[in-house]
Amino acid sequence: MATQAMFRIWRGDSAGGQFQDYVTPVEEGMVVLDAVHRIQANDAPDLAVRWNCKAGKCGSCSAEINGMPKLMCMTRLSNLKLEMPVILEPMHTFPVIRDLVTDVSWNFRAKKTIKEFRPRSPDSPDGTWRMQQADVERVQEFRKCIECFLCQDVCHVLREHHKQDQFIGPRLLVHVAALEMHPLDVEDRVSDLKQKHNIGFCNITTCCRKVCPESITITENAIIPLKERVVDRYFDPLKQLFHII
Predict the structure, then answer these.
(1) Hey, CA dihedral for 40, 38, 89, 111, is it positive or negative?
(2) In whole angstroms, what is the distance from residue 35 CA to residue 38 CA?
């Protein structure tokens, strides 16, 4: 492994910015976030970067590394070509606050537009429910989400077409799936998926699934089943005929 590496880091704010180069010593076992901290300590104390756990569980240090949305704390330098500059940019889909820090608050505002969990009445007089283990396990995958918003960053509907006012994006569709497929939930979100959240904008390119650090099968296990519910209700010709009769 190289003993030093060049990091080309985007510096600036909402008004604009540019890339600046920093050469820093690197050692075996380091991740990108380690190098950024070393640059902060020695060369750029005003460099803004968001992080918390450094263990791939808080989702704070999302950035674009050599053009690919990743967690800086989970990207090992040994997996990068250090003979070339390592290019670090803030996520493109969200407004820049400063340097590598972006404003992801839209995601939380959009989340409030989703109908909340509404459980059915208890199955037993003691106030408890009965559930099949298979139904419980189905939604467990979706609860692994750490809200790093890398899937939102790579989603072309948000990144390129800027449909934030119409489309909630893959992370929040995963949240809807966790509610809709919950064995106790009785709320109906299908009409909202079609009319308010515009799930039809997603053309299932699987780009969101490919960047998920928790390996959640976003497209196949969450978005496609939700699309099927919308199709069953609004586009199934037999059901349409039934309603007409």
Answers:
(1) negative
(2) 5
